[in-house]
Design goal:
Elements: E1 23-25, H1 31-42, E2 47-49, H2 53-61, E3 81-84, E4 89-92, E5 97-101, H3 109-118, E6 126-131, H4 136-147, E7 150-157, E8 160-166, E9 185-190, H5 195-210, E10 214-219, H6 239-247, H7 265-276, H8 282-291, E11 295-299, H9 300-306, E12 318-320, H10 322-330, E13 335-337
Parallel strand pairs: 1-2, 5-6, 9-10, 9-13, 10-11, 11-12
Antiparallel strand pairs: 3-4, 6-8, 7-8
Helix pairs in contact: 5-8
């Protein structure tokens, strides 16, 4: 049993304590026990302080004072058990199990499909995804870790990956005007106007958006051509502005590879391989990014230099300057230059 020794008498009663045993010291809240523990340690005892003392033990182990409020109903901590305050009873919520086939899709296709499907589901529901992309095995684990959902299982049978995800309750979003969490934001400067670099930029942007990040893409100089409409637009331009417009590619379908273009043959071959491998074309990646809330900002200064008018850009593109980019960059922890 315990030995009750007041702190003021401890030094005079050390002979009552065994030196060959571990001694656990406690008091009401842990303060006097800490002092007593220090005294015993200095005297060569193997002593430990029970932080929190009797008060914490009473609160954690004592009887619940409002137990009758719940009519003696046992409420489990599982996701499918919820408490209905209107009726005062715990009820079991029906859990759905949804199948999702993402086979044949390349990165970031499977993750985007998972993200879109999870938005329609409720806490406790389970999603079973099948994918053929080998990188999905790593991506789905990272996605679950960052989005707060549970990866229940991950198996591979004959080259097909099967993952089971249990949807968790998402944290409530507040609109108090505060700045976004930097770890949840990403900023990109898209300077280049080549097909391969534009593809990389939008694949990263869509992947980040699927993981819940706020993504801002700032298009300047040759990168602005990515956002141009494919069809001609009737706008008033000077002779020099019209010459610039003729020399630059109009839209995602007209972009060239940065290497191995080979008078258009290399770019055509690359697009053919992308179709065979089920890789989304750049135009589809752009539409997906806009749908997922990626912010596309065109540099106003570059537009003035190159004679590009707002009417020539895709719907949903904002116009801004360096202050817009710096503001978005300050609110993010990752800034990429492509």
């Amino acid at each position: 049993g315990a030995i009750n020794i007041p702190i003021d008498e401890l030094r005079d009663r050390l002979d009552e304590l065994p030196r060959n045993k571990r001694i656990l010291v406690y008091c009401a809240v842990g303060l006097r026990a800490y002092i007593a523990c220090r005294i015993l340690t200095q005297k060569g005892y193997d002593a430990y302080n029970i932080t929190g003392g009797c008060k914490i033990y009473e609160h954690t182990r004592g009887a619940q004072s409002n137990f009758d409020t719940y009519e003696h109903t046992s409420i489990d901590s599982a996701d499918h058990i919820r408490y209905d305050f209107s009726s005062g009873k715990a009820s079991e919520v029906s859990r759905q199990e949804i199948q999702l086939d993402a086979c044949g899709l390349q990165c970031p296709g499977p993750i985007l499909r998972v993200y879109e499907q999870v938005q329609k589901m409720h806490a406790g529901d389970e999603l079973i995804i099948q994918a053929s992309d080998p990188g999905f095995a790593t991506d789905i684990g990272v996605w679950c870790e960052h989005s707060g959902h549970e990866l229940v299982s991950l198996d591979q049978v004959q080259g097909i990956l099967s993952a089971r995800i249990r949807v968790r309750e998402s944290s409530a979003e507040t609109e108090d005007g505060s700045r976004p969490n930097p770890t949840d934001s990403m900023t990109m400067v898209v300077f280049s106007g080549e097909l391969d670099r534009a593809m990389a930029a939008f694949i990263i942007a869509n992947g980040a958006a699927a993981m819940g990040k706020k993504v801002t893409m700032f298009f300047t100089f040759w990168g602005l051509n990515i956002l141009r409409r494919g069809e001609p637009v009737s706008v008033k331009k000077s002779l020099v502005e019209r010459m610039f417009g003729k020399m630059m590619p109009r839209g995602a379908e007209k972009l060239k590879l940065s290497n191995m273009h080979m008078a258009g043959m290399g770019t055509a071959m690359m697009k053919s391989v992308m179709t065979q491998k089920h890789v989304s074309p750049l135009s589809e990646l752009i539409r997906t990014a806009i749908k997922n809330g990626v912010r596309l900002v065109g540099c106003q200064m570059t537009m003035d230099l190159m004679g590009i008018k707002k009417e020539e850009l895709l719907d949903g593109v904002e116009l801004g300057g360096v202050a817009t980019f710096i503001g978005a960059s300050d609110d993010s922890n990752t800034t990429l230059f492509i």
